[in-house]
Design goal:
The protein is α+β, with helices and mostly antiparallel strands. 33% of the residues lie in helices and 23% in strands. The chain starts with a strand and ends in a 5-residue tail after the last helix.
Length: 399
């Protein structure tokens, strides 16, 4: 690729088209995504809702960037549907000299690691407030081939981009299937019909309660919080209770190996379950986490855990509110699963021998699903690496 190294100042011109915001006029505002993910409309609002009355107008085809977050990849060529959007002084707009620089060619170039690394180096200030310096930015030299060659490279990149997009869509579509397959199998094991005349969680546990103490301090008594109850996984806590409240925890409230931990509050966490196996430590939960301790005379702890973490058990936990199983709470303050709700959760209960068979079957099935997920994660990572590879080839003269 025949190219000349040209300073950006020769092909970009800073524009400062100022406008005074009018109270009764509507204005489009932008959101500039980081990591080179481009620009889109944030919203359209009346001028009366805009605090800063002196703004600037950005136009389609211009390079628009955040002087604060350019080092984080917050830049892009303004698309046509964002034409005439307003920006504050924290954002810069540059007109692209179309006779020398194709806007799409430049937008692809801004996604390269070389350009991003330069923006990082050209930003100065404190750790939290580092601003891109315009003189340094405009002195940056890029390899600029003739305009026709730029357009050929753009066409080549877009052809490869489209193929990668198809691969990403395929990987995304497949990525959701392992979880769906596992959920379908769990619903086959515990169909809705199995809930008829089922016993309740209260019937099959010897202890079901949320914790009470949460004041932290230096002791040997560990505190289990919502953050330690991840989806199907217990994260060992390193938090400890204050000594004077640790003495108030009743012996039956101490977590025991085989206990099932249930997240009871906070949006996005409700109903998450984990299996406690941390033998040899003293631990209890705060009020946001419940302990369900299986009555081993009627139910294996592993079976109860498999059910509660499975599709049917999760539905019964997460959608239960004042007896209404179909409605899930929304919002942080309203998201709550109290003990009375949990006591009424139905638990299908075959004989102990059949419970063991179900647990063994689901464990083997889950291992296969996990292996499939691992393969797909590897594939997704390989696909994600294609875009940087294409850009490196394009701007390294190999396309």
């Amino acid at each position: 690729m025949t190219a000349w190294h040209v300073p950006l100042g020769e092909v970009l011109e800073r524009r400062k088209d100022q406008t005074d915001v009018q109270e009764h006029q509507e204005y489009a505002r932008l959101k500039i995504r980081m990591n080179g993910k481009g620009i889109d409309l944030r919203d359209r609002v009346a001028g009366s809702e805009i605090g800063t009355k002196h703004q600037f107008v950005a136009r389609a085809g211009q390079l628009v960037l955040s002087k604060i977050d350019a080092r984080n990849g917050a830049f892009g060529i303004l698309p046509s549907h964002c034409d005439q959007a307003i920006i504050t002084g924290n954002f810069w707009a540059f007109e692209v000299n179309s006779s020398r620089l194709d806007a799409q060619f430049f937008e692809y170039f801004t996604k390269t690691t070389d350009f991003l690394d330069f923006c990082i180096r050209a930003s100065e200030g404190t750790t939290n407030r580092r601003y891109l310096q315009e003189p340094q930015f405009l002195r940056f030299c890029m390899a600029l081939p003739p305009i026709e060659e730029q357009r050929r490279i753009v066409a080549r990149i877009e052809g490869l981009w489209n193929r990668i997009t198809m691969l990403e869509a395929e990987a995304t579509g497949i990525g959701g299937k392992p979880g769906m397959v596992l959920a379908a199998e769990e619903m086959r094991v515990w169909p809705n019909d199995a809930l008829a005349n089922a016993r309740t969680l209260n019937d099959v546990t010897v202890y079901l309660a949320r914790g009470r103490q949460s004041e932290q301090g230096q002791s040997e008594h560990y505190l289990i919080k919502t953050q330690h109850v991840q989806d199907r996984k217990y994260i060992p806590s390193r938090m400890t209770l204050a000594p004077h409240v640790a003495t108030k925890v009743a012996p039956e409230a101490l977590a025991q190996p085989g206990d099932i931990l249930i997240a009871c509050s906070a949006a996005g966490c409700l109903g998450r379950t984990a299996f406690f196996q941390d033998a040899g430590i003293v631990a209890s939960t705060d009020t946001h986490v419940a302990i369900a301790r299986a009555n081993r005379d009627v139910v294996f702890p592993e079976y109860l855990y498999a059910y509660l973490r499975g599709a049917q058990g999760q539905f019964q936990l997460r959608s239960r509110e004042k007896g209404d199983w179909q409605r899930e709470k929304v919002g942080f303050r309203l998201t709550e699963l109290n003990v009375a709700d949990m006591r009424r959760v139905p638990v299908p209960l075959p004989g102990l021998q059949e419970q063991r068979k179900i647990v063994d079957f689901l464990e083997r099935f889950t291992l296969k699903i996990d292996a499939l997920r691992d393969c797909q994660a590897k594939r997704a990572a390989e696909v994600a690496a294609l875009r940087p590879s294409v850009l490196n080839s394009a701007f390294g003269g190999r396309l």
